[in-house]
């Protein structure tokens, strides 16, 4: 699905020439996803928690397929040139409508179909398919489009997998949940009604901190992906190197998410893993804001982008699971969906803010940007982005504390002791030590009782 979102971005010049429009209009083929996602997300969370996974996924796959086919129809010879771009935009809008219906499902899917020791890994695999789609579009769109005559081939190639996935989803997805629930929380299915769940989340302090801070993290990563080429070309780095850094960012992010998902599944240390990785991500963001403003530092820039992806991308699936743990029994789609909405809103704000902070440069002799971008300095915006990332990370590390409500509910359902946080564990051990008599104390008490019985006899 993400490859449909970024189909035209890596080949913007050829696409604009083929359709006879400006680059700004081509950019709107990507922006439409963000515009549609914010209002539609509320309806998507209601659908997932009320109508279930099957209806939501099948509807999303059909919208995605129809949009991909409509985009291909726009390049057929029978269509007049003036109608090409409006038809492409119509198909892109249908694909944008499908995005929330699919992107919100990993947390719900993991909760209903996987036991508690596999949920984080399942969420990771499903969530990381999105950046993998971005990587596919970044690599294959330039490969397929050698000239403007190949735009039609590009749209046809991307429409084929969309049609196949639609067929598989329609035929293969039979139920929203398995016949045998894999966990106690899946079996009880005590999700609050949608509106009541929203109100509970707004009163949940821990969730609101996660909503704000992790939403800010999503916004920072969106800014990084969107503005990377513009930031680096000013300092003389070519577009192919910027694309390489973007690829390293995604590849190392997928690797990091794999390791962290397996670790969290075994240890259940959601809070500790999220705080540590957010801290390293903030450090990587600070490093990027510095090295991206230096010339001839390709190795340093590539390493920093890799570390930024490794620690930053890996947080996403774990944070989604953490949102469920701190908000249970609110529906999984609702708790995860509101964080996604927060990230989208903050992304728009951050991008406009950073673009507004750019300043014209008196001279840029090493710039590899196009004429319109050559004179813009990104030094101040990069420092502001690093400052925002650091501030929200500190806020999360200091103020976020919560119990694992879903794990505790599952433990109580099967008769186990509830899961405790680190502080609660220390307190519990201290109380146990104070309340439980030692062996010598027990023996002395028994000897005293025996002596009293002999004296009375």
From TrEMBL:
Gene Ontology MF, one = transmembrane transporter activity
Q: Where is the Major facilitator superfamily (MFS) profile domain?
A: 1-405
Q: SUPFAM superfamilies given for it?
A: MFS general substrate transporter
How is it placed in the membrane, per its record?
Answer: Multi-pass membrane protein
Q: Which UniProt keywords apply?
A: Membrane, Transmembrane, Transmembrane helix
Ranges of biased composition (kind: Basic and acidic residues): 448-457
Q: What is its main location?
A: membrane
Keyword Transmembrane present in the record's keywords: the answer is: yes
- PROSITE patterns per record: MFS
Q: Does the keyword Transmembrane apply?
A: yes
GO CC terms in record: membrane
Name of the protein in question = Major facilitator superfamily (MFS) profile domain-containing protein
Superkingdom as given in the UniProt entry: Eukaryota
Species per Swiss-Prot/TrEMBL record: Oncorhynchus tshawytscha (Chinook salmon)
Bilayer-spanning residue ranges: 28-48, 55-73, 85-104, 125-145, 151-173, 207-229, 241-264, 276-293, 299-324, 378-400
Renumbered residue ranges of the record's region Disordered: 431-457
* Record localization: Membrane
- PANTHER family the record matches: MAJOR FACILITATOR SUPERFAMILY PROTEIN-RELATED, SOLUTE CARRIER FAMILY 49 MEMBER A3
Instruction: Give the compositionally biased regions (Low complexity).
Output: 431-447
**Which CDD domains does the record cross-reference, listed alphabetically?**
MFS_MFSD7 (cd17399)
């Amino acid at each position: 699905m993400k490859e449909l979102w970024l189909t035209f971005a890596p080949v913007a010049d050829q696409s604009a020439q083929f359709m006879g429009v400006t680059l700004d209009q081509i950019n709107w083929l990507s922006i439409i996803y963000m515009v549609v996602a914010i209002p539609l997300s509320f309806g998507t969370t209601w659908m997932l928690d009320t109508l279930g996974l099957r209806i939501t996924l099948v509807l999303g796959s059909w919208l995605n397929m129809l949009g991909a086919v409509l985009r291909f129809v726009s390049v057929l010879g029978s269509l007049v040139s003036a109608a090409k771009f409006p038809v492409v935009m119509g198909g892109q809008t249908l694909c944008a409508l499908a995005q929330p219906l699919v992107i919100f499902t990993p947390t719900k899917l993991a909760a209903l179909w996987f036991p508690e020791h596999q949920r984080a890994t399942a969420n990771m695999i499903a969530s990381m398919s999105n950046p993998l789609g971005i990587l596919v579009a970044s690599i294959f769109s330039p490969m397929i489009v050698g000239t403007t005559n190949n735009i039609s081939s590009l749209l046809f190639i991307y429409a084929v997998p969309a049609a196949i996935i639609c067929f598989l989803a329609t035929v293969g997805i039979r139920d929203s949940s398995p016949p045998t629930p894999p966990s106690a929380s899946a079996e009880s299915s005590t999700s609050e009604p949608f509106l009541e769940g929203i109100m509970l989340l707004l009163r949940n302090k821990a969730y609101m901190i996660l909503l704000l801070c992790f939403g800010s993290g999503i916004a920072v990563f969106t800014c990084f992906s969107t503005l990377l080429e513009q930031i680096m070309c000013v300092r003389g780095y070519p577009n192919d190197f910027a694309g390489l850094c973007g690829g390293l960012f995604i590849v190392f992010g997928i690797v990091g998410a794999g390791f962290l998902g397996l670790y969290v599944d075994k240890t259940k240390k959601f809070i500790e893993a999220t705080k540590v990785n957010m801290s390293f991500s903030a450090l990587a963001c600070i490093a990027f804001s510095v090295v991206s403003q230096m010339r001839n530092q390709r190795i340093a820039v590539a390493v920093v982008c890799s570390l930024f992806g490794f620690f930053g991308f890996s947080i996403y699936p774990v944070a989604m699971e953490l949102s469920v743990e701190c908000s249970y029994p609110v529906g999984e789609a609702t708790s995860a969906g509101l964080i996604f909405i927060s990230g989208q809103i903050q992304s728009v704000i951050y991008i406009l803010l950073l673009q507004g902070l750019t300043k014209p440069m008196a001279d840029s002799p090493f710039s590899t940007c196009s004429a319109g971008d050559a004179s813009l300095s990104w030094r101040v915006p990069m420092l502001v982005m690093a400052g925002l990332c650091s501030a929200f990370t500190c806020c999360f590390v200091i103020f976020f504390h919560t119990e694992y409500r879903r794990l505790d509910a599952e433990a109580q359902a099967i008769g186990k002791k509830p899961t405790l946080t680190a502080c609660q564990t220390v307190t519990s051990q201290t109380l146990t030590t104070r309340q439980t008599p030692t062996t010598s104390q027990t023996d002395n008490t028994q000897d005293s009782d025996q002596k009293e019985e002999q004296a009375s006899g």
